Amino acid sequence: MTKRIFRSIFLVALAVFVASLTLVMGVLYAHFSEVQRDQLIMQTDLAVQGIEHEGAAYFKDFRITGDYRITWVSADGAVLYDSRLPGSEMPNHLDREEIREALENGSGESARYSDSVMQRSLYIARRLSDGTVVRLSVAQYSVWMLLLGMIQPIAIVMIVAVVLSLVLASRLAKHIVKPLNDVDLDKPLLNEEYDELKPLLRRIDDQQRLLKQQSRDLQRRKDEWDALTSDMNEGLVLLNEKGNILSINHAAKTILGTNRHSVGRYILTVARHLDLEDALYQAQTGKHFSKVVNISGREFQLDASPVVSHGSVSGVVLLLFDVTEQRQAEQMRREFTANVSHELKTPLHAISGYAELMKNGLVKPEDIDRFSDRIYTEAHRMIRLIEDIIHLSHLDESVSDLHFETVDLFAMAQETVEGLRPQAEAAGLTLELAGESVALSAVPQMVSAILFNLCVNAIKYNRPSGRVSVRVYADNKTAVLTVEDTGIGIPPESQNRIFERFYRVDKSRSKEVGGTGLGLSIVKHAAQVHGATVSLESELNVGSTFTVRFPISR
Ligand code: ADP
Predict the structure, then answer these.
(1) Ligand 1 probe mutation, 339, 395, 504, most atoms within 8 A of CB
(2) According to the CATH classification, is domain 2-149 in 3.30.379.10?
(3) Does residue 306 have its Cβ closer than 6 Å to ligand 1?
(4) Residue 349 C-alpha to ligand 1 middle, in angstroms?
(5) Which of 118, 122, 345, 503 has the most CB within a 10 Å radius?
(6) Alpha-carbon distances, residue 391 vs 301, 396, 504 (angstroms)
(7) 67 vs 305, higher pLDDT
(8) CATH of range 405-551; options 3.20.20.20, 3.40.640.10, 3.40.50.2300, 3.30.565.10
(9) Using one digit for the tens of pLDDT, what is the confidence trace for 14-53?
(10) What is 327-397's CATH topology?
(11) Ligand 1 within 6 A of 488 CB?
(12) What does the alpha-carbon distance between residue 545 and residue 533 come to, in Å, rounded to a whole number?
C-alpha cells in the first residue's frame, strides 16, 4: 500500500510539474513573441525614418545584427535592397502579404515560413513617402527552440523537482500509511486518526464482539460436553468423515491407551486395531457396526454409528462399553448351571440306583441298613448342596436390599463356635475362641455364613487331635477374624482357586466330609458385600489360617 501511495503521489507530482512546465513555456513563448514583434515594429519605424532621410545611401555600409533582415522594395515589387541576398537575385515581392498590405494601407504585417531563409519569420512592412516599401523581418523561435535554449535550467529544475517529489512522496506515503499500520484491531473504536475508516472500524468492532460472543458460547458448550463426557465410564470418540479425531473422552483414551495429544490425528494411527478399522469402514459407508472386541485383555462392546447430514456421512461416533464383568458373569453363570446339574446328578443317580436295587429285592436283608444309610447320606448331601446354591443365589440377587446393622463379631463367633463344638469334639478336635468384642456394621446372616463355613472347613479338613483357633480383634479401623487350623493345609497352586464355585482340592475327601465346594464362594461373596478382604496362609500338612478384615463402619 505504501508503494502504491508513493507511486501515485510521485506520478501526480511529476504530471503537475510537466503541466506547469508546458503552461509556463506557452506563456513565455507568447510573451517573447510579443516582445519580438514590438521590437521589430520599433526597428522598422527607425529604418523608415533613416531611408526617408537618407534614401539609398541609408544602406551604404549597412550592418544588421542578429536574426534581423531588412528588405527595401519598390512600388512595383522589385527588391531594391536585401540585407541577406543581392536584390537582383530576389523575386518580385508584390505577392508578399505584408508588402501588399503596406502598399495598400501604409503598413503590413505577416508571419510565415520563408523559403529563402528556410525558417518561420515575422514581417513588418511600412510604405515610404516615395511609394517604396521597407520591410523588416526577424526569425521567430519555435517552442522547441525556446525549450532547447532553456534546456539546462529546465533540466536542473526537473532533477530538483524529481528528487523533491521522490522524498516528499516517500514521506507522505509513510505518513498516510502509519496510522493504518498502527490501528489497534483489538480496540478498533479507539483509533480516531481517519474519519473515513470509522465505518470500517465500527464494523470490525461489531464483528469482533460477535466473534467473542460466539467463541464464549462455543467454549461453554465445549466445557459442558467435556464435563458430560469426562465422567462417563464408556469410551466416546467423535471422528470426522475422514476418521480424524474431533473429540475423545478420558475413558476412551484409557481404553485405547492413547495420550492427550490425539485430537486431530487419524484414529487408526492412534489405536491400531483390526476391529476398529472394520468399524470405521462400516460407519464411513453409512452402516452401523456393533461387536464385542478384545482390547488389552478386556472385552468391550464397540459401536460405530455414522453421522449423516445432507445425505452423506459427515462423521462417525465410536462408543466403547466395558463388558468384561458382564461377560465373565455370564460365563460363570453358564459354568455354574453346568456344575449344579452335574453335582446334583451324582447323588441323585446314587439314590435312584440304591432305591431301585432295594425295590427289586436285590439287596440282602443284612445290607439294607448300609444301603439306606447311603441313600440318607446322598440325600443329605443334596439338601446341603441345594441349601448352599439357594444361599449363593440369594447373595447374587439381593445385594441391593441388604439390611446392615451393628453386630458384635466376637459374640457371633462365640455362637458359631458353640454350635460347632459337638462336631469338633466328635472329630476329636480342640476348638477355641479368643479375642475381644468388636462392633461393626454388617448383615448378620452373612457374617454367620462366613464364620460357619470357615469354622466347618477348619474342622472338616483337620487331623485327629488337631486344633481350631478362632480369634476376633480390632485393628485400627478394621474388625479382624482369623480361623486357624492344624489341618491338611492347601497346596500353593490351589490357594487362589479354592474360592471358585465347586472347586475342591481333593474331591473325594470333600465328598467324604460332606463338602459341596460352595462354602468358600459364599465366604468370598459375603465378604465382598461388606467390603471385607479374605486372605489365606497355608502350609501343606501343617495347617491353614483364613483372615477376614471387615471395615468397622460402612
Ligand atoms: P467344600 O464344601 O468342598 O469344603 P469349600 O468351598 O468350603 O468347599 O472349600 C473348597 C476347597 O478348599 C475344599 O474342598 C478343600 O479342598 C479346600 N479347603 C477349604 N478349607 C480348607 C482348610 N481349612 N484346610 C484345607 N483345605 C481347605
Answers:
(1) 504
(2) no
(3) no
(4) 24
(5) 122
(6) 32, 9, 19
(7) 305
(8) 3.30.565.10
(9) 898 889 888 988 898 888 888 889 999 998 999 899 998 8
(10) Helix Hairpins (1.10.287)
(11) yes
(12) 14
